[in-house]
Amino acid sequence: MKIKKTSALMLVFLIVMTVFCSCTKNKNTPISSQHYVMDTVLSQKIYSSADVSDKAYKALQDEENRLSAFKEGSEIYAINNASGKSVSVSKETFELIERSVSFAKESGYLFDVSVYPLSRLWKDAIESGKLPEKSAVSSAKALVDGNKITLDKQNLSITLPENMGLDLGAIAKGAALENVREIYEQNGVSGAICSLGNSAMLLFGNKAGEDFKIGLRSPFKAETAQTFATLSLRDCVISTSGGYERYTEIDGKTYHHIIDTKTGYPAESDIASVTVVGSDGAFCDYMSTRLFVDGFNNAIKIIEQNNLDAVVVTNDEKVYVSKTLESRFELLDGSFERIN
User: Fold this and answer.
1) Do 236 and 53 touch, CB atoms closer than 8 A?
2) Comparing C-alpha atoms, which of 298, 297, 301, 326 is closest to residue 311?
3) Share of the chain residues as helix, strand and coil, in percent rounded to the nearest 5
């Protein structure tokens, strides 16, 4: 048995998308900071004289305190422990759950925020390196049903059947970056990069009038933070889903943290990583998770039908780049093969 779980210290160096900067000590030198929040490392580079990194960090702490399924005192924790009773929540939390329910229906419940019974089970499995019993998986899977989430918009309340639960982990980081964007806007920041660990990044404004050049990390060399390509972007959110950050290996098989609610087990996808770029952080988070679980062929159909900005890496090191990103994409690693 081999357990792989990236520590907070290592995450400082192992960001999924390494930002390439060739800055010297001049007006292009960013104010840099790092904190730990939302169960990952927050890294900020602010290209401005206004250091608002602490304000952004505080905003993300507030989001974690409101949205974490595993933090006692959060609104989601209250819902999950209400024993079937209605729970009143803030307008922001209600609207995010409402969007999540809409996304779940749109995806045919490949994405489902009622996944908490399963995500809790597999979180424990990854941390302990011990697989749950099949009966435990079956019991948890039976409690996952997004159709049973009752939304009372008038009273801003959420009701779940007893023993069900919500986990917004697949959408919370992207949604939280919208608050960071607002802080940057309100404080006159001209350009900034805000990265939440290995899954979500905000590119705010630009770097002295130019695009930010960011590196996409290879899902096959995650421990060395090696990049296989770059994207030149500005004013967007980038969300990446893959099974290579939080996982455990037991008897030669990998079990990661992205759950297929149809089976109750980690998704057995032919996708190694999928990156979605857009203006809406919550949507990018949702879509990257959905595409990963859906598998390569369906993912490409969805990307092309919806004109999405996306990069998909298969398990056999093939790379698909949406037409909308082709001019901004540069492949660096010759071991990868472009397939479009």
Assistant:
1) no
2) 326
3) 35, 30, 35
Measure Cα distances from 255 to 10, 56, 250, 272, 279 in Å: 21, 33, 8, 13, 31
What CATH homologous superfamily does 63-159 map to? Answer: ApbE-like superfamily (1.10.3980.10)
Q: How does pLDDT run across 28-57, given as a tens digit for each residue?
A: 689 999 999 999 999 999 998 889 999 999
HSE, side-chain direction, 13 A CA sphere, residue 164: 21
Q: Tell me which amino acid residue 19 is.
A: V
d(CA 74, CA 270): 35
Return the closest-CA partner of residue 164 out of 87, 258, 107, 63: 87
Q: What is the pLDDT of residues 58-92, one digit of tens each?
A: 999 999 999 999 999 999 999 999 999 999 999 99
Dihedral pair phi/psi, residue 164, rounded to 5°:
-80, 170
Distance CA 32, CA 34 (A): 7
pTM value is 0.89
Backbone φ and ψ of 285, nearest 5°: -60, -50
Q: Say how far apart CA 329 and CA 327 lie, in whole Å.
A: 6
Q: Give CA–CA dist 329/340, Å, rounded.
A: 12
Sign of CA dihedral 52, 53, 54, 59: positive
Report the interhelical angle of 281-294 vs 296-305 (nearest 10°): 140
3-class secondary structure per residue, 250-314: ECCEEEECCEECCCCEECCCCEEEEEEEECCHHHHHHHHHHHHHHCHHHHHHHHHHCCCEEEEEE
